[in-house]
Design goal:
The chain is mainly alpha-helical. It contains nine helices and no strands. Bound molecules: zinc ion. Zinc ion binds next to α7.
């Protein structure tokens, strides 16, 4: 699966969790959307643009889209006094320590081979620990996005002759690769639209629970940003994919 499909799945999965737990406030919507997207994209920190062969092409664009979503979340939190950043700054040393280790882990993950360390339960636990240190209320949504990423990647064909080794660095066989989908192909598109469709449906559910324009407008800003930015990332990625398939003689 491609990064934008994973982030769409992460957002919808974390909003489903928030709704299931009864958290239907504007703050919960923002937290779930941001943390779910971050968890959804985090394992693909090991994707290198144009460097690991023709199958991997969209490393940076979905990451930038998620960084933009985080920025919108921070602005909304500050402007509307949701108090999320305020809880982070209550324990500044712990949060800063978590952030530094998180960045180091991402850098290490980026240097490792695709679908190895960054696609493991070890990486999930380590990065979730950092997210917990930064903002404890984000960690469940982050993990939902991360674990959905691993599950969707298990549906793929093998990459570089192996699948997902959940217990990496322990490698059992060739890892899990069920061979039902290929990154950037039809299965990816199907899961992307399921994720986006669920995101729109959960956004509509939240809107019905809000009773003021001050709550609804920030939700629409996040919804519109995700729909537009992910659409841009997907169309760019798909045009690259068509180019690759053309080179490979598949088109
Ligand atoms: Zn992946």
């Amino acid at each position: 699966m491609m990064g934008y499909a994973h982030s769409a799945a992460g957002i919808s999965g974390s909003l489903a969790l928030a709704a299931y737990l009864g958290y239907v406030s504007p703050e919960a919507y923002l937290l779930a959307a941001v943390a779910g997207a971050l968890g959804g994209i985090a394992p693909d920190i090991d994707v290198k643009d144009q460097e690991e062969g023709a199958e991997v092409t969209d490393g940076s664009r979905p990451r930038l889209a998620v960084i933009g979503l985080i920025a919108i979340g921070l602005i909304e939190d500050r402007a509307l006094n949701y108090g999320i950043l305020a809880t982070v700054t209550q324990t500044p040393r712990t949060a800063l320590f978590g952030l530094i280790i998180f960045v180091i882990l991402l850098l290490v993950g980026h240097c490792t081979a695709h679908r190895t360390f960054a696609h493991s339960l070890l990486f999930a636990v380590l990065t979730a620990g950092c997210i917990f240190a930064i903002c404890p209320s984000m960690v469940a949504y982050y993990l939902v996005g991360f674990l959905l990423h691993l599950i969707l990647d298990m549906l793929n064909n093998e990459y570089n002759h192996h699948g997902i080794w959940l217990l990496y660095p322990i490698k059992s066989g060739d890892g899990i690769a069920l061979g039902l989908c290929r990154a950037g192909r039809t299965g990816n598109k199907v899961f992307y639209f399921i994720g986006i469709g669920m995101f729109i449906a959960f956004s509509a559910l939240y809107i019905t629970k809000f009773n003021s324009i001050n709550d609804t407008v920030p939700l629409f800003v996040i919804l519109a940003y995700v729909l537009v930015s992910f659409h841009f990332v997907r169309t760019q990625s798909e045009s690259e994919q068509r180019h690759i398939m053309h080179i490979n003689g598949e088109l």
